[in-house]
Batch of 3 targets.
Target 1
Amino acid sequence: GTGDAIRAELKALKTEIKTALIADWLKTAPKSEASDEADTSDDNLQNFQWFTQGLTKTKAGEFAITETGLRIYPGGYFSDLISSKDRAVLFSQRFECPEGTLWFRVAGNSGVKAKYVVQNYPRTGTIHKAVVLKDAKDEEFKWRPLELDFWKGDEVFLQITTAADMPAEFTNDRSWFGITDVRITKDMPPPDAPAVSTASPHQLITAWQNNTLSNAQAEALNALVQAKKLSLGSIDLLIKRYRELEAKLPAPTRVPGVIEADAKDAALFVRGDHKQPSDIVPRRFLDALDPTPFKTTGSGRLELAKHMADMKRNPLTARVIVNRLWHHVFGRGIVATTDNFGKLGELPTHPELLDFLAQRFIDSGGSIKETLKLMVSSKAFQRSAHASEAATQKDPENKLLSHWSIRRLEAEAIRDSIVTLSGKLDTTLYGESVGSGDPRRSIYVKVIRNALDPFLATFDAPVPFITRGKRDVTNVPAQSLTLLNDSKVIDWSRNWASDVVNDGKNRTDDVRVRQMFRQAYSREASDDEVKQSLAYLAVSQKESADQAREVAVQEEKISALNRQIAAILDPARTMLQAERKLPATPTDLPEALAEWTFDKDLSDLKGHLNLELVGSARIENGALIVDGKSMAKSGSLPKRLTAKTLEAWVMLDNLTQRGGGVLTVQGKNGVLFDSIVFAEKTPAHWVAGSDRFNRSELFEGPAETEATTRPVHVAVVYQADGTITGYRDGKPYGRTYRKAPAAVFEPDASQILLGCRHGSPAGNKGLSGRIFRARLYDRALTAEDIAKTARIESSTITEADILAALTEPERQQLKTLQSQRDTLNQALEASRTAMSTDTPKAQAWTSLAQSLINLKEFIYLR
């Protein structure tokens, strides 16, 4: 594939780089007499038998192209000879742990661990020690010790892995290690230092050219490179080409599994107690079926798999497979306990049929497709779902298949059918897994054991901890409530309703209702169903219109209160600003891609992204004023943005609002976005908003308390690797985190919003407040940069200062107005939560679509 082609090209480039370096170095290195230096290299890794995955042992002289230059290695195991994206595992055979100290001569970076593993326990901690290689200082080969006395007599093995191959501890996409020596000493002196080469630079280069470097010579040559006594300047272009090509190398995908290594038979633990080992049990198949020990020096896993898959020697496999296929086709297996064919399982209802199907399956070469075709073309599959009176009395569970047994749809089918109705189903085959909100088929929805998709889990999708041949089937209130309240179902219902209503065919409502019944149920609606649906639409539309009027009244009352509050605060702030000598604005500010000050108009001071007002937004007293249902938006971005910084000075109308965006960069379709958001996930806290929280986590900074009485400076810095940092008033706000790779915003397809999280200012996406200045940067600013830019609108005026400048009557009036505003805001929030952001008509049709979906998904599968 593409990765193999890139890897082959990288190997060829390495050869070209080595040839060019040697030719250049030999021109400048002084010639010397031939060296009589003996090769004293020792292979100190031979004291252990090593098992590897992703790397092989190399001779001295192998090298790696790094982010900062080049490293030449002695003999040993190295994981980064092509790329630090590559992953590798190295471990020894098991041995009885002696007393003394374990010494690794190892180098690496980015979370690599060199350790001993006791009794196969994979983690490290209080008593399971490891050498951790995590930063630049660990990239130098040196001896690193671990004490072994605590584990004397236990079975251990040695292990070193790249970060991505550590169970449950993955932290970095890139990491690397190299190991040249391992020793165990009893009296704990440091091992002898490696031999030091006395060869001249010319001799070292010649030996590298002839592939005759000793370990000591390789380390001496590498030391000259790191000390810059041998320059890489002549191959700058080659190294640049290498790095550009290496960046395109796809990161490998690993599937958790077990690597074959040394193996031995294990003891039986009495009643599962590891402290009571009994007789040694040889590697073999199930004792009841075939107790013959496997003839192997390996783990026996391959032999076990072959034995299980050999259906002529083991007919149980074929019987289990066809029984599960029968279960999925007919809703009940011939053996009802699909996971238990033993004594505690149920007897087959049709034993001869089970034998027949198993033999057909074996004869077909194990063809699941042919077996399913046989089942669905049978008369049993074609039977009516109506049971006769005799069948109901004699066989109420329909074990004898006198008629078809109806059953509930499974979770994945429910989700797929809803997405299909929405018109958004993505039927693309293959590719990466997706989040639950993605419109791809459910088989592509990501499964994380400790964060299962709540929609699928509600409808009995099994928890992936053990094999489940038969799912639970429940009918609980949470399922109906999910179909009514889940945000994804609401969005899909809205899409379905929108397609029906806005199809441009100018049809009557009763025709549209009949179309929805055909789409949902594959049948015509009855006249009574159409009548009920139209009545439901009328009632829903009236309720939505009444709610919208009530919200508009509440919003106007809040706007009036905000104007009264501003009339009290603004004169006091202006007076204080005039009285105080504010710090001078720094002169060495980082250059912004775009900047808006709102002194006179909506123009971008840099000339790239002029704004236009949307809704009731306006400019007043040097600020952009937005009210939760208005915003300002720009035209297209002038360039591509990955690394970026968003920065704004904002004053909020209230601290109870939830989810409004201050400054947003988004795709023009409103789906992909990054934003400075107030209180979307946690009340009164700033957050870096993103599409479906893909890059959003809590900064865990302090709650906002001052933004209603003075402008606060907020900024979010996005690194190219996805690292995100928040700032408030020029200082770090909470923690820095990385949740996912950075979003990429393409020019001409992306824009800027102020006062809105993304899309349009509906629901809780709009901000209510005043934005005094905003800046957009096409790079990630440093903490020092942010500390400087925060002083552009610098003000030492605090909330306490402003309150002190007011008269007592003004303070009392302010307190009363703010209390009234907070009460109205709470009522407004409740009203907005209870209503949709759509028009009353669109909301009514969406509600009808949800009702039809709710009924549809509780219809049983024929």
Target 2
Amino acid sequence: MPHEPFWLEIGQFHVVPVCHHSMEFAREVERAFRAVRPQRVAIELAPFLLEPLQRAVRRFPRLTTLAYEASVDLSGPELQAVQAQLLRMETFGEVSPLPEGLDASSGKLQVKRHHLLAVEPTDAFAEATRLAQAHELPLHAIDLPIHYPHQHQDRVPDPASLTAIGLKAFYELWNREMGAGHTPEDLAREANMAHALLNLKRMNPEEKVLVVVGMAHAARLLEHLSAGDAPLKPPPPFQHGEVELYEPDIETVRMSHSEAPWVMALYEFHRGGPGDDKYWQPPPAPEPEPEDPRDRLKNVDPTQVVASLEMMLGLRRRRPQPMEKQERKALSRYLQGLNEDPGAFMQLLNQFGSGRLPEKVEFPQVKAPSTRFQAFKFKEVNDRRADLRGLYAAVLDEAGPDLDRQSMLEALMRTTGHYYTENTGDHLANWQFQTLYQYVRNYARLHGRLLPNIYELTMGARGVADDNWAYEVWDLGSFYPWSPEPEGESDLPLMHLSDDKLWLGGREVVSWQFRRRFPSLRRMRKRAKEGEAGDWAEEFEGGSICSYPAEDLVIEDYARYLQKKAIQQMSSEKTRVEPFTTSLMDGIDMRETLRNWHERKLFVRDIRRITGGVGAVIVVFDEDSNDDRYPWRMTWHGEHAQESDMAFYATPTNVKLVGPGISRCEYGGLLMTYPNRRLENIWADPSYHELRSKSEILLMGALEYGLDRHVVYVSASPPRSQFRTTAARLGKRIVYMPIGSLSPQSIQKIRIFHVLSDHQKRKIAKDYIW
């Protein structure tokens, strides 16, 4: 049930206590505004920031950062740090030990810094400003112009608790546990705010005023308003320059904003709608310029053309001379295009009909063959803009009218899990989500919060899965769809923050600070290098392929692990436990002895030895019985004595090209037999055509070509009884192991493999394989 709007009422003043930069408090301000229906709005803000704030709010959903230069008096630890730095610089003769502005007698140092204040839709003061503008109400700034140290952060309960307990209970908890502390600057500010409100009351005695102030000031502000008197105290000296407006680019929003951009985007979508359609269009893909395939063939020797034609027609009579790589590829693609245009093919042949070679070959116009290969590209959130509008609407339906943050974060993890599967082919199990939620819950509690932030969710995803899921969480969680790219268009100068360097309108700012700033998140996944699909696909035109040795070692080791596990499984099935009489046999069975301890007997184990080894291993990831998801069927032999022969069915090599001559594939099922160099092409054997599925072909091949007695069969379901009968006739035994009994991470690790176009690609494969 939604809680009632809450405010503290003193006469015509309706005071809403809030915390900065939190969606829940912005929502409370909106609810209080609609319940009170005020004629004026007052907010805790310095007057010199009021007009820039109003301009920034009018730009929503575009974000704005207010920047101004102000003098700051350093003292205490800050001054000591600066003095220590100056002393080190003096040692190396870089600067004078007493710079201008240092007052040695008072122990203070005055410096100038650029102060940055992010204007976010989820900030309570920005929401109050927006409401006042929408209803054309007067807006008043009642705070003192002072320096807000960014190191200062109040310890407050998690704002996410507002959804459960409401603002009233939250405020009472604040006053009871944390409301007593204050500083001289707080007292001066509260007196000034009360004085401004009392003046407003004298000029407009009948108008209701909605006052939005920080929770730390609400109680003492009410005391001043109740007394009707606010003795002014001299404000601390504060000098500031002109306030300038900048729009942060997307990289800066990812690093610097207090509220999670995922939450900001959902709130703005709920509050202001999707905005213009241009924000939901993915970046246009560059259209390649049409290229005439004959352009690269101008200087090709006619003898090369004749030799290539003879090879294509099966009439190879002369060895072609060496050609440049680009020319060889261009000629190959041109001759492939002749297959679809017989007329052009005859025009080319007629040039050699006189019995002698022409000085220059005229190549007829043909349509360039369309490559079947496509380069695989990691989809980022910017490529999914067309889907984000529907995603935000669906998440808001789940979050409900109160905008439950927990539902928002849960939807973030569920969505990034789908993106992770789409980009990598790996699947996240339910236990991984359960482990993640337990981890981030404990992580949040260490910091006194109920729910985690984007940083903690990213680290949790990295721990339970890998860097790819962590990147997906960071990419979507820190994305704000209305932010421009670093080189994008904006009606304001762009602000860019990168590697702890700040640029305002293209000029670098050396001394600066945010009012608040969260830890930055870096990209943890090494992205594949860009390339053209056609160039990458051409690497496979030679007809030769090979595997990636690092993956060969992993799958061979796992096959040996399955062999040992099968032996242990069969041994445990034949193990007998009996009371101790005259021999300890194979050792004491502690479990059975403790279970029957009341009989005061020892129980021992009799392990029966297994005759025969394991010579073939079959792992079926997907039966592929209803569709043809894994059309590529292959048999290849081990390169040396430590490798096995393998037969498998998998996704084709033309689906995901991740590099030049490097294709990412996924096994549907595989067979490994020892020793190598023995396995025939079981996919072309006509005697296997009557079998029902690809997995049965693998099993039959293991029974026929395996030398050892036992065959390991790993699958979601056991084989048909017919195969056990066939195995018995061949003097063999099938050892079935449910795939669910094995580690999901290990299974997923061996299921993905890469195919290389030649052995030279093994040198560069590590740069493209993740």
Target 3
Amino acid sequence: MSLGCVVIRILPATLLSLSLVNCSGAPSGAPVLTVEMPLHLEDHLEAATASGLELPRDPPELIEWRFDEPQPGWRPTSTLERRGSVETSYSGDALRVRAVRQSTWPSTESPVGAVYVELPPGLALQDWAYVEVRARARGPVWDIGVAFNHDPKNPHYYYDIPFVVSGLGVPVITDGVVQSYRLDWIEDWIAPEELEGPLTHLGVWFTGTREAEEAAIELLSITVVPKAAVYADVPSGVATVGLGDRLQRAILGHAPGRLEYRIALPEAPRLDVALGVHREDQPVTFRVDVASSGGAAERLLEEVLTDPSSWVQHTAHLSAYAGREVTLGLEIEAEDPGAVGFWGAPTVSGSRTSGNPDVIFYVIDGAGADWMSLYGYNRRTTPFLERLAEDAVVFESAYSNATSTPLSTSSFMTSLLYSAIDRFRSISDKIPDGVTTMTEHFGRVGYQTGVFVSNPFAATASGLERGVDLVRVLDPPVPTVSSQHLHRAFWDWREAYPGTPYWAHFQTTDVHRPFRPMAPFSGLFITPERRAQYIELDEAMDWEDTVLVERHALLQQALYDEGMAHQDHHLERFVARLKAEGRWENTILVIASDHGYPAGSGRSMPGHARDAPHIHPFATRVPLLFVWPGHIEGGRRIRTPVSMIDVLPTLLDLTGLPQPEVRQGHSLAPLLLGQVTEEEWEHGPVFVEMLLIDVISGELVGNMEVIDGRWGASLCVRPDDPQVEVIAVGGGDALFRCTESGYRKSRTPPRERLLVYDLWDDPLLERPINENRPDLVERYTKLLEAQVEANAALRALILGGGQSVELRPEQLEQLRRLGYIR
């Protein structure tokens, strides 16, 4: 430990991210820790006295292929013969892979190719950390990814490649220079039936840009990194470890090893911890003991574990030592020196000593406010929320900042627009380390933290597992029943870790595609016959037939509404149990959504224009309710437009925690606590964005939009080229991409660069008012262009990671004026 230790973030599907911290062994005069809040032992390694912690004598080897000489085991494979062909050749130090698009395949699709190799027997996906590929590329190459188990008869449903399982693509840098790419996969999305048995093949695939006739990439090496290889070099540290369907923040240690903490125990003290091992063939013995000053140590726990597929939860009661200063020892031992053991979220807590409230942030994925009876919808989809509104402040005009889960969730969990944190390059982007998430804000002051989601983009797929005590990403039989499964996981967590206060994030998919409501809500708004008709239409839909499209939308609406009623019912049961547990009076409950209609679908709901701006209420108007009995006066409705990025600063304000150094949201606490009236309140405009990197120009393109009181405006951000044409992609997202080529063109004529709407007289955004209000066109063009620049300046500041970043004085002044930095 005197050499320092490595903090590791370890996921079943992501790279092990390493950073050094001070973990030197604490001297005999080690500090005494107190338990005014739940004491997270993994956060106090610097205060522990460490001994042992042997590294393994025979660390596992990497599996590597280098292509500076032929590797005959690697073979080319096309996505499907109908899409094109793939050729390979050797060029000096690399294997060149060339994909050619079939002439009969639509010109708007990409050339896609892959190479694969047969794997030796006995390899399992859960043993691998990631695959690293060294490659170089020029020309129209878009992304690269990893896949498993070659099977031409069973192409992957998303990427249309002949593999059973695929990871997400990573953008390729096409400067002709050798680059290293870390290729991950997300086990949360891999159902057991998708990958039964061992791994048989490893594949690496890539895609060209759309409309390219062909694309090529040169592979220099492919390396498989097993998790054990990363553990092998780490004496001890903090890791987010996935065992089974639970990810726990844990202390990692190699046997034999021991950590000792000096702790002043509170009343009714207890230690809650989950134990885990890395390998079945390396049993590890875990021991916990406690000793008061000058007394003999008492053994509280001893267990031998051999199963690496799940955590084993334990509680060590310390009541006999209440109010005393003790030494708490955590020890691991194994016959095989270097064997790895995990102490999952080791937490010492006692009877409540803190007045901090519990916080529950409950996000209903894809729940549009327009489809809730709480907001005046004509079907009783949310009767419980209508009753809860009597105890809540309800925001009538709350908006998400994007129309997809990866982007909007990243924004409201950081109080930063997603283009300010570089989350627009690909679906596999993660929140950068220089940004503090909502979870981290609460975890760092001692809150117990839990995340319970059924959409991986609300957790592991976005890097939002960082710093969380427990993460559960559950895959229910159908999305419509997600709330039941997530609530059960939450109560299991509270039983295992009952310390308070806690912070919990839910993100349910009850109203998410494929829209299969379950009894007793199935049949509430649609007959079984019409439900069967929808399923038949959905599986073989002719999207050019406007009559069928409208019928499909009406049927889908009824199914969506039944899912909303299901969610509302189980939310009512959840709140009822909170009250029964005695925690309701000191709980802040926030109910919201990540975006509007139609969750997980490129379909349209009735009455919505597919090419409407993102500020259209069906797309981004979301529910937002705050409840805190005895602190927030209920029965109030606020009409002022607010943003989902306001949630984080509001919760920090309500709980008395410091605000982020960098933020774009505003605290709503003065409104909630009655310190100002709505008439006195000045919030500022609400921004909605849908921006990406254009694959042709490499520039930022898409839409930056604003809701500013009565007015709304949508700016098309595009390269400065008079020949560009407005192009829409993304199905229901209707993203106005401004590129010369490469994407499916919108059915509508090219739009003006800026569109302005009167939201009071035209709430469905059907009639731009550009001709009548040139003054507003000028005002909002300047405002939105300035916002794009401000986000770019923030992005440079954040990605600088504390390094020197060159910003013009006017950029810094703009960021301060906007309140984004202190």
